């Protein structure tokens, strides 16, 4: 495991000293301005934990934590050389498909490699999740296909209006 990585695949704290758990698992806020250290009511939980459905600060925090996992665990261990047949975008977080795929991969990493995962969890993660996601993202026609000389937004296919 890369230096300072944890079971979630990211260091214990970031450069701002924040702990690195999923946004929905964050401890309740306290009112530091008034000096009251009594826990305040937790903000309402999102209806979905999937990153594409989060908004505002929750989405920003989830994306920040995801980038830490990709930087500190996924790329050092599983990042293969960039070639014309396996493109990569250093600004992958600007590709919604990559964000969605990596987030799902990270969620399953935590589920299948955590302390309650069972001995076959890591093998299942590799077989059922990692290989497929990396192949899809690094495919020559995948989301990074136009990013050979730096990030380029992909052109989304058009769709005719539904007639009904």
What is the structure about, briefly put?
By secondary structure, this protein is mostly helical. Helices cover 36% and strands 4% of the residues. β1 (30-31) and β2 (36-39) form a beta hairpin.
Describe this protein's structure.
It contains 3 helices and 2 strands; from the N terminus they run ββααα. With 164 residues, it is mostly helical. Strand 1 and strand 2 (36-39) form a beta hairpin. The longest helix is centred in the middle third of the chain and has 23 residues, at 56-78. The chain is globular, with a radius of gyration of 18 Å. The relative contact order is 0.13. Mean pLDDT is 81; it is low at 14-24 and 26-32.
Following the backbone from N to C, one meets helices and strands in this order, namely EEHHH
What is the number of helices?
Answer: 3
What is the general shape?
globular
Helix content percent band: 25-40%
Structural category is mainly alpha
Number of strands: 2
Strand content: under 5%
Biggest beta sheet attributes: 2 strands, antiparallel
Order of adjacent strands in the largest pleated sheet: 1-2
Terminus-to-terminus distance: 54 Å
Instruction: Write down the Rg.
Output: 18 Å
From the structure above, extract its key features.
2 strands; 164 residues; mainly alpha; two-stranded antiparallel sheet
């Amino acid at each position: 495991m890369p230096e300072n990585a944890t079971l979630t695949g990211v260091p214990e704290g970031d450069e701002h000293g924040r702990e690195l758990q999923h946004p929905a698992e964050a401890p309740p806020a306290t009112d530091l301005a008034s000096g009251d250290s009594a826990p305040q009511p937790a903000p309402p939980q999102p209806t979905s934990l999937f990153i594409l459905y989060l908004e505002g600060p929750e989405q920003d925090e989830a994306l920040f934590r995801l980038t830490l996992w990709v930087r500190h665990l996924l790329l050092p261990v599983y990042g293969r050389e960039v070639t014309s047949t396996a493109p990569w975008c250093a600004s992958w977080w600007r590709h919604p498909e990559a964000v969605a795929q990596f987030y799902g991969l990270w969620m399953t990493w935590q589920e299948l490699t955590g302390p309650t995962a069972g001995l076959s969890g890591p093998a299942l993660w590799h077989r059922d999740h990692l290989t497929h996601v990396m192949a899809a993202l690094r495919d020559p026609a995948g989301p990074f296909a136009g990013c050979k000389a730096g990030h380029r937004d992909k052109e989304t296919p058009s769709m005719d209006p539904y007639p009904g």
